[in-house]
Amino acid sequence: MTSEAKTVAIIGAGVMGLSIGWRLAQAGFKVQVFEEGLANRQASWAAAGMIAAAAETAPGQETFFALARASREDWPGFASDLETASGHGIAFLPGETLVVAQSQEHENHLRDTVKYLRQFDEPVRLIKKARLPEVEPEVSPDARLGLLSAHDGQVDNRILGTALCEALRREGGELFENTPVEDIVLESARAVGVKVAGEIIPADHVILCAGSWSSTSFPSSQEIVPQVHPIKGQMIAFQSDPGRLTRVVWGQGVYIVPRADGRIIIGATTEDTGFDLSTDQPTLEAQKAKAAAVVPFLGDLEIIDSWAGLRPATPDNLPIMGPSDIEGLTLATGHYRNGILLAPITAALIAEYIQSDQVPAGLIPFAPQRFSPSR
């Protein structure tokens, strides 16, 4: 299959849909990306932008870690390409991430995690309590132990979305905001386009990147798409002096992400409450208390912003990526907590599949068919 004159309709303009669309437009496909609201305003907007392959991994998660580390390794090239293609800096900051233990149980977990990750030659090390102030002076003296990851980093996810929109357009891709897709159009069990405002827009291939809405919004494919469900995360932000906190810090049930301008992002709750995007003051104050237990000066700051996002979760908490049982319909959804981290590898693998019509080995563990009853 060649890219000449081939059209691709992408449902969803979060980081996943935009990244895939940009890479396919680069390859010469005619790309149309459809978004019900504004681009990059759902989970991708709500995220903290962490690129946390090691910090998000625990013993027994070999399948996730292999994908996460491959994507993290792709991030420098992806960021450089995107900044050149869009003309926007995206504040990509590779570097060290610190996870601190606040209890004996968490300390044991960090020790087990380091042993596990070293099997894969991952550059992580334990930081004893006495040395934690040398690594991050603002960490609480009550912290018991640290895990320092050399290669995890962050990106400004909101600027990232802006850059992806611009790169897509510069490559000739079309972005249709405030344009909900009503359904995926099927003919003889093949996806042949999307239905928008009652009109059929034909496409040689349809890619579903609708996040938490992937399983519920498109009647023709509901029996084919594995269950993706929303998990709400409430988040807060503070304003501090730039550079006061030098790196991303994780505690128990909380992460703290400093931006270059002094803004500090705190996240996030894990709430199975359906498609509810509300926030509530007691929960936000509890998040502040958790953050202050890790980095005490945060307790003296006022919350300047709060919001919630819906992470697209799957039954096994791994993404769903690859061709579906409907010919011409490919899925790239269910990235749960790691959409920003996994954007480069997802875009590369899906674009490779669309161009070659051969499923890359990297997609096989994440195939939609793994949830089929016969599997």
Structural class by secondary-structure content: alpha+beta
Report the C-alpha radius of gyration, rounded: 21 Å
What is the end-to-end distance?
A: 29 Å
Q: Kindly report the CATH topology of the largest domain.
A: FAD/NAD(P)-binding domain
Q: Beta-strand level of the residues, as a percent range? A: 25-35%
* CATH homologous superfamily (4th level) name of the largest domain: FAD/NAD(P)-binding domain
Number of strands: 20
Number of domains: 2
From the 3D coordinates, which CATH architecture of the largest domain would you assign? 3-Layer(bba) Sandwich
User: Secondary-structure element order, as H and E?
Assistant: EHEHEHEEHEHEEHEEEEEEEEEHEEEH
Q: Approximately how much helix is present in the residues?
A: 25-40%
Structure explained in plain terms:
This protein is an alpha+beta fold and 375 residues long. The protein folds into two domains: 171 residues, FAD/NAD(P)-binding domain (3-Layer(bba) Sandwich), CATH 3.50.50; 142 residues, 2-Layer Sandwich (D-Amino Acid Oxidase, Chain A, domain 2), CATH 3.30.9. It is built from eight helices and 20 strands. The protein has an eight-stranded mixed beta sheet with strand order 6-7-5-15-16-17-14-18, with helices on both faces. Strands 9-2-1-13-20-19 form a six-stranded mixed beta sheet. A three-stranded antiparallel beta sheet has the order 3-8-4. A hairpin with a 4-residue loop joins strand 16 and strand 17. Helix 1 runs parallel beside helix 6. The radius of gyration is 21 Å and the shape is globular. The two termini are 29 Å apart. The model has no long low-confidence stretch (mean pLDDT 96).
